[in-house]
Amino acid sequence: MSPALRGIGIVLRTAVRVSPWQSLLCLVETVGKVLAALAPLFVGIFAAGAVDRDLGRMAGAALALVGSTAVTNAFSAVGVNAQVKQHELVGHTLDAEIAHRTASLPTLDHLESARFQDRLQLLKDGEGVLGGAFSLLVHTINVVAFSVAVLVVAATADWRLLILIAIGGIRMISARWSVRWERDAEEAGAAASRLSRHLLDLTGSPAAGAETRVFGQQQALRRRLRAAVRGWRTPLVRAGDRTAVLDAVHLLVFYAVAALILGWMTRDALAGTVPVQALVVAVGVLGSLHGVSSSFVEAIRNFTRIGRNCARLVWLIDYSDRVTANQPARTVPPTRLEHGLRIENLSFGYGDADRPVLTGIDLDLPAGTVIALVGENGAGKSSLVKLITGLHRPTGGRIMIDNVDLADLDPSAWRPRLSGAFQDHARFEFTAQRSIGVGDLPALDREDRVRRALHDAAAEDVIAALPHGLATQLGTAWADGVDLSGGQWQRIAIARGMIRPAPLLLVLDEPTSALDAATEHALFERYAAAARTAAGHGAITLLVTHRFSTVAAADLVVVLDQGRVVETGTHEELVAAQGRYAELYELQARGYR
């Protein structure tokens, strides 16, 4: 089955699941549409009765017309009301499914892929269509039911109306051109759509706002935003223009032929060879016939639009399932480390990049040790951390956790064994209590645990400076919210990384980049002391830094250069070896003399 049909099946099943009775009520409108299509027939019967002075036929036709109109309006109100409710329910359910699928992916590989981001952007751009997919399907059913009824009425009135039906059929066949134009336009504008949203976010971000004003970038940013929006919308506008031309040509041809046919039928009616009823029905059904072709074309466009967006939903579901299937993740990680981590011939590259960022990494990280990972910017330190924590999958080699491949461990069980603070940390704009407590959800509202984490992170003074202590709302975008400096946000992040009790692996990925070297050194001394206290269960503390003055207390220093391990040893051993580490250490030391 095609992805589009599979996706439509998902929409239908979702609608029935969220509200079976309301789904059924949506179809009530279809009955009203069929009755509405019969109106020209009733008018024709009334006219014929008037010509023949048949009051009974006139009364019956009038009663049928009034009754069908009343039923049509009532059924339409019931159906539309049900569709509006289903739109909200189905849309919310499918949006939640998209969010769940995206957030549940065990790694961050998809976030580093431009191709994935472009396809996801197409899905986001079509969320309105996807949310209203069930309503559009019901609308399509209504269009088909109404159109079939109109065609039956026209075909039984006079054979010449079949010519107009054929012209409408040609228009429906040509609709595939406009469908292809729209699809190509959506795909052509996907990257520009993502860029325009990013630039728009920059215009409303306080942090970006400071730089754009200081550096005088507002005008340049506006120009680039306009260019990005043009790149996004121009293909769609061009597709719309081409479709409009196609519609105009069909309109002219249809009504030109319709005028000839009506003239022909009028002549025959005056000659008495065509019944008055047939002529009246032809006049009454003429507008509906053009509407039928337009409605069918619109139904085709809607159906294909639904199909495209449903196919994108299926793509996301299949991607999520494939990622999950490729990671067996059935082995429970240990509660303590006996041997530690062993990295064997590890290599890794981001997304579709040709050049790997890590190559041939072989390391032994013994249990209960403090490891310092050093190197210049771009050496691959953070990439190695992401692999060890399972946020990315290696493109080659493996990572062993006490002789068990990390790829075989259950991510949902491995992640609670980890903790850490990162240079690119999140700024959770909650209360200070919760901004720290999210580091260990069971401790979210436990003040004692949060204060302990603040002590371990040497961040008590940050909270002491807040007007309401831990109850202070962080972030000026909120009522009574307080903004923090970069260093204060970073120390909140460090405390968040210290709140989880007894992690097997504590990662500190340049968490003090906004702090001075002396403060970083003092903090690392505290981390090292805490790590050795936790060494009883084999915990490993991994410090990532490019400041060599803070790593002397580490048990092992690993030096990375251009994605490769070039040296390992203690601080003293590496300085004595006069290699790459000693060279970089001396360069930094000169800056403090």
TrEMBL record:
Signal peptide: none annotated. GO terms for molecular function: ABC-type transporter activity; ATP binding; ATP hydrolysis activity; ATPase-coupled lipid transmembrane transporter activity. The chain crosses the membrane at residues 31-51, 129-155, 161-179, 244-264, 276-297. It holds the Pfam family ABC_tran. One of its GO terms (cellular component) is plasma membrane. It is a multi-pass membrane protein. Keywords: ATP-binding, Membrane, Nucleotide-binding, Transmembrane, Transmembrane helix. It comes from the Bacteria. InterPro entries: AAA+_ATPase, ABC1_TM_dom, ABC1_TM_sf, ABC_transporter-like_ATP-bd, ABC_transporter-like_CS, P-loop_NTPase, Type_1_exporter. It is found in: Cell membrane. Residues 161-305 form the ABC transmembrane type-1 domain. PANTHER family: ATP-BINDING CASSETTE SUB-FAMILY B, ATP-BINDING CASSETTE SUB-FAMILY B MEMBER 6. This is ATP-binding cassette subfamily B protein. The lineage of its organism: Bacteria, Bacillati, Actinomycetota, Actinomycetes, Propionibacteriales.
